[in-house]
Amino acid sequence: MAQRAAAGGQALSPWWRHGTILVMGFGFAVLTLVTVLTYSNAPPIPARVVDSQGTQLFTRADIEGGQEVFLQHALMEHGTLWGHGAYLGPDYTAEYLHREVGIARDALARARFGKPFAALPSAEQAPIADTVRAELKANRYDPSTDTLTFSTGEAAASRALERYWADYFSRENTAPGLPPRSIVQPGEIRLLNAYFAWATWATVTNRPGETYTYTNNWPYDPDAGNHPSTQAYVWSALSLVSLLGGLGLVLLLFGKFHFLGWEGDDPLAGARAGPASPALTASQRATGKYFVVVAVLFFLQAVVGGALAHYRVEPFSFYGLDFILRLAPYNLLRTYHLQLAIFWIATAWVAGGLFLAPLVGGGDPPGQRALVDVLFWALVLVVGGSLLGELLGVSGKLGQLWFWLGHQGSEYLDLGRFWQLLLAAGLLLWLFLVFRALRPAIRKEGTNEVSALFLYAAAAIPLFYTPALFYGPHTNFAVIDNWRFWIIHLWVEGFFELFATVLVAIIFRQLGLVSTRTATRLVYLDAMLFLAGGIIGTGHHWYFTGQSTLNMGLAACFSALEVVPLTLLTLDASGFIRLRRRALADDGKDLASKHRWAIYFFIAVGVWNFIGAGVFGFLINTPIVSYFEVGTTLTTNHGHAAMFGVFGMLGLGVLVFCLRSLQSDAAWRITERYVRVGYWGLNAGLSLMVLLDLFPAGVLQLWDVIANGYWHARRLDYSMSGTFHVLEWIRVAGDTVFLVLGALPIALAALRSYFLRGARAAA
Predict the structure, then answer these.
(1) Which among 120, 191, 387, 753 has the fewest CB atoms less than 10 Å away?
(2) Cis before residue 176, ω within 30 degrees of 0?
(3) Alpha-carbon gap, residue 510 to 219, rounded angstroms
(4) How far, in Å, CA of 740 to CA of 177, rounded?
(5) What DSSP designation does 45 have?
(6) What is the mean pLDDT of each run of 10 residues along the chain (763 residues)?
(7) Which of 69, 6, 116, 188 is nearest to 473 (CA)?
(8) Over the range 45-74, which residues count as b (16 or more CB within 10 Å of their CB) and which as e?
């Protein structure tokens, strides 16, 4: 039966549910089409690559073996390929391409004039430069024989750059953040060079019958003839039209229907007299150790982040302690930085689900406490085992088991396949536990709607993690990147965010701040607004990774729509503030007032979502801006403000709510001091990071890309000099505040809440 609201008894229209289903159905139909086309549009991997004389240079097996070397040594956590990965090292394809141009020019100049290109007068340089650009653009792949023929210049570059990469990965002070002799086996270098040669060919050679490359003319390198495509300009302009149209429509609806916010159409429902705080169940008390893990992993992630930032100012040492470079190279630390972020945020939301489900369902099913403990130790096994495996994998100690037990090499999905399978199994167990606790509420008339939404949102978590299993180490990189962003964008930014919205709605309902009707409507509304642009908008990550221009057009327009709900989050923030003020208007014993710091964290989510995901996200999501900035500090700026500012703050808000619920009033009075300092320290530290370094440095780097080419702005010569380098040093102020006044107090609060918790007093 349709749910009836606490206020007025009116049934929520079924079109809320129908609208959500229609939005998701349309979005996934389009995204599935784009994904299917990826397999046919991806740059072909030829069976043989030969020079103009027919001499074989390398084979498909060599290219696939080179990709295996690239992934096994975690080079995507050092530099980038097609703009995706880490930012201390170079973009390997952009660096290869620019060096290839120079080698091809020299080879042609010596053949014609017996001199290197630089020694020729400008009148003789121009035709050689034009010839090289034309040769690079010509697609000499023959599908009938599955053979790719390199020009004389491309073949010369392939041979010469093998020696360059051998020096780069073996000599001191060449590969920033990596110890000397990180890759020394000649066979591995040969395979890696073959992989880079193929990946670079895809960036500069036109698609058959088209005037743009497999990567839509990325990277920007005028010497190679790579300029923004016409499509990048046109779709960027049309994306602005999409944004303005969507924003106008939604603001019209919000202006007409005043109940579309957190205050709902009955803002006083329950707000003045929140429900009594129920006694905690055994399984809820068992979640306390989850939050200890959350706090410890968060603190470790912040420490690792500080170390990563230092590598950007001292890339070949660590305050003179060279052994740290050998024990904790940049690619390993960045792996840990990303994995720890996913682990602690996901653990916070998983534990929040376990804590809230009995509140909604009315108690613990039989054996729930024991199963919660089993899931906890399974989580500890996955976290500890995967981190150890990544260490052993990067150091080459796992042999052929590197992909299964070690480091997969794909950014954000670094943990080995075995640990991925265990994680997927753990998520299924978690879903089962949530279902057991929610089942009584789902069956009960009047509360089944929001309870069912809780379950559906939880079910999406294990379901949308499965694309992480859809590729292997030899899969075409364009296909790998497609499935990778199904996880990064859809799983983390889409359905985990939807699940978090459900958690917040249920928390507010439990606190008496909103009615069940308002909570349910807000979940549907957020689902439609976020997923309308977010599902198809996933493709903004694929502009330059082997996709067609169809994806560029769809992703540009729908990705722009993602800004619409983020703009409305400013209304969420103000709504949170008004709800809290209404609660504080009571005598101070209101349940909501006791959870004011959780509400503060949710206010921060609204603000940072607008800034980090809305402003900074839209800044880099249009095709023309993304063309110049992908893989630069502007991406890092967006990542920090959105990843921690939104998902991190949401996780910490859930953590603080549960910690408060687990503690007596007397015990909380001391713990609250740590939470207060941590809250302001985290927000101040993140703000300083953005204002002192990430945003201004990103703008400077974008400027250099446009002025000198992408390869130039990604080289160490640029990042270790001038104002850009000074800003990297200044960032230490923000990092210190974030770590010492933010992450540390939150960790201490969680530890104190667990180990020094008192008997919980009735509210």
Answers:
(1) 120
(2) no
(3) 51
(4) 25
(5) -
(6) 43 83 94 96 98 97 98 97 96 98 96 93 94 97 98 96 96 93 94 98 97 97 97 95 86 66 51 57 95 96 95 88 88 97 94 93 94 97 97 93 95 95 96 95 72 89 92 96 92 79 82 76 82 91 94 94 70 58 52 81 87 90 96 96 92 94 88 96 98 97 98 96 96 96 96 71 35
(7) 69
(8) bbebbbbeeeeebbbbebbbbbbbbbbbbb
Where helices occur in 609-738 by DSSP H, the ranges are 616-621, 623-629, 633-639, 649-662, 665-689, 695-708, 710-713, 716-719, 722-730, 732-736
Distance spanning both ends of the chain, measured CA to CA? 34
Neighbouring residues of 598: CB distance < 8 A, sequence distance ≥ 6:
507, 653, 654, 656, 657, 660
Alpha-carbon span 397 to 539, nearest angstrom = 36
For 124, other C-beta atoms within 10 Å of its C-beta total: 15
For residue 221, what are its two tokens? Answer: 């390198």
Task: With both helix axes pointing from N to C terminus, report the angle between 744-755 and 649-662 in degrees, rounded to the nearest 10.
Answer: 30
Asked whether the CA dihedral 100, 106, 107, 108 is positive or negative, the reply is: positive
Unique residue bearing structure tokens 């001191």: 172
Residue from 344, 335, 346 nearest 305 by CA:
335
Counting DSSP H helices and E strands in the chain, the numbers are 33, 8
Q: Could you tell me which residues come within 8 angstroms of residue 306 by beta carbon, excluding any fewer than 6 positions away?
A: 735, 739
Taking the C-alpha atoms of 373, 375, 377 and 383 in order, what is their torsion angle to the nearest 10 degrees?
Answer: -150
- What CA–CA distances, in Å, run from 757 to 43, 163, 348, 754? 58, 62, 19, 5
Apex CA 718: angle with CA 714 and CA 723, to 5°? 125
Question: 48: helix, coil or strand?
Answer: strand
SS (H, E, C) 470-526: CCCCCCCHHHHHHHHHHHHHHHHHHHHHHHHHHHHHHHHHHCCCCCHHHHHHHHHHH
- What tokens were used for 432? 């089962």
| 15-41 vs 549-561: helix crossing angle, rounded to 10 | 150
Q: Tell me which H or E stretch contains 431.
A: helix 417-443
Rounded Cα gap, residues 148 and 258, in angstroms: 62
Q: How far apart are CA 372 and CA 354, in angstroms?
A: 8
**457 is written with which tokens?**
């949102």
* Token pair recorded at residue 426: 């753990």
pLDDT score for 255: 66
What secondary structure letter does DSSP report for 278? P
The Cα-based distances of 367 to 364, 374, 376, 437, 444 in angstroms read 8, 11, 15, 11, 22
- Taking the C-alpha atoms of residue 494 and residue 444, their distance in angstroms, rounded to an integer, is 29
pLDDT confidence of residue 760? 44
User: Residue 347, CB half-sphere, CA atoms under 13 Å: how many?
Assistant: 26
Phi, psi values for residue 405, rounded to 5°: -110, -15
Distance between CA atoms of 732 and 709, rounded to whole angstroms? 29
Give the pair of three-digit tokens for residue 122: 């400008």
User: What's the pLDDT at 452?
Assistant: 86
Q: Residue 49's closest CA among 60, 37, 38?
A: 60
What is the C-alpha to C-alpha distance for residues 393 and 399, in angstroms, rounded to an integer? 8
Query: The whole model's pTM is what?
Result: 0.93
Collapsing DSSP states into helix, strand and coil, what is residue 614?
helix
Q: Evaluate whether 129 touches 221 at the Cβ level (below 8 Å).
A: no
Which pair of tokens denotes residue 384?
A: 């500890």
* Residues in a beta bridge with 4: 11
Q: Which residue has the tokens 């406490």?
A: 369
Domain residue spans of the chain: 46-227
Give the HSE-up count for residue 457: Cα atoms under 13 Å, Cβ half-sphere: 32
CB 170 within 8 A of CB 184: yes
Please, are residues 426 and 379 in contact by the beta-carbon 8 Å criterion? yes
What was the pLDDT predicted at 36?
96
- Those residues whose C-beta lies under 8 Å from the C-beta of residue 253, and which sit 6 or more positions away, are 260
